[in-house]
Amino acid sequence: MEHIDIQYQNLVKEILKAPKKENRTWISTYAIACRSIRHDMADGFPLLTTKKMGMKTIAAELECFIKGLHTKHEFHERNCHIRDERCDPRKVPYGNDEETKKKMMEEDELWRIYWVQWRDRMWTPAASDGAGIDQLKEVVEKLKTNPFDRRMIVNARNPSELNQMALPPCHYSRQVIVTLNHQWEKVLNLTWNQRSVDTMLWLPYNIASYALLLLLLAKESNMIPGILMGSLGDVHVYENHIDGAKEQLSREPKKLPTLELSNFTSIFDRKYTDFELQGYESHPKIEFAIAV
């Protein structure tokens, strides 16, 4: 299967040839639609090498996702600041003027953001007693009791609570699919759907985060890691990311690293520091500004 960096670079090249369009952030994008990224975990851990990636930050964010945390200080306790720009819109309504952006940064609560939906969907009729549906826990249980179930899906887009979310979910659903290899061993595959893709800043994080989730689910269920795939909707490069994009395109991909899970007892107890990244060599970091 083609190296993840090469797939990524080819995607960026295609986007940069597209017409420019407007969006809510006031920063125009070059955009294409309906693309995919596909990686075989046997080829290594898909952490891009054409720019330096902070794996500990990615792992910290995923820990917060898995635990359904919803305040910035819980992210900060794990030295993760990548959710700082947004907040509960009921407390500070969204705006991209400087005064509103400052207020959003200062507000701690993210509230019913999409990883909370992974663990507790309060809106369903069955939740009238106050107990939501723990979708992630249900998937883990099915992996152990009915691994070939074709309904192992976690949804994050909750229409009734979009007005309580710091950001409507970009990557809004994921499905786990178990297959067999020719040795009759169970192989765990994961595909995610993403409506909006900030290709230079967030897509590399999304790829690595879902790869780590795949490894954790495979470890939890004693299966072999298989295929990771992202189905991407509006795939774009912001106008102010063009110089960095061209720099990243000029770089030659390096060999992918491996990632080993350490101190593993359960996916739900895991800490963001419980991994060992081995053989990671990359080009220097490239800074890309966040479009709020």
Assign the CATH topology of the domain at 4-54 and 129-278.
Thymidylate Synthase, Chain A
Oligomeric state of shown chains: single chain
Counting DSSP H or I runs of 4 or more residues, the number of helices is 8
Percent strand equals 15-25%
Backbone structural class: alpha+beta
Note the gap between the termini: 35 Å
Radius of gyration: 19 Å
**Broad shape:** globular
Question: What is the assigned CATH homologous superfamily of the domain at 4-54 and 129-278?
Answer: Thymidylate synthase/dCMP hydroxymethylase domain
Helix content: 25-40%
Q: Topology as H/E string?
A: HEEHHHHHEEEHEHEE
In CATH, the architecture of the domain at 4-54 and 129-278 is 2-Layer Sandwich
What does the model show?
This protein has 292 residues and is of the alpha+beta class. It has a domain at 4-54 and 129-278: Thymidylate Synthase, Chain A (2-Layer Sandwich), CATH 3.30.572.10. It is 29% helix and 22% strand. The chain is built from 8 helices and 8 strands, in the order H-E-E-H-H-H-H-H-E-E-E-H-E-H-E-E. The strands form 2 sheets. A 6-stranded mixed sheet has the order 1-2-6-5-4-3. Helix 1 (4-16) packs across helix 8 (242-249) and helix 2 crosses helix 7 (203-221). The chain is globular and about 55 Å long.
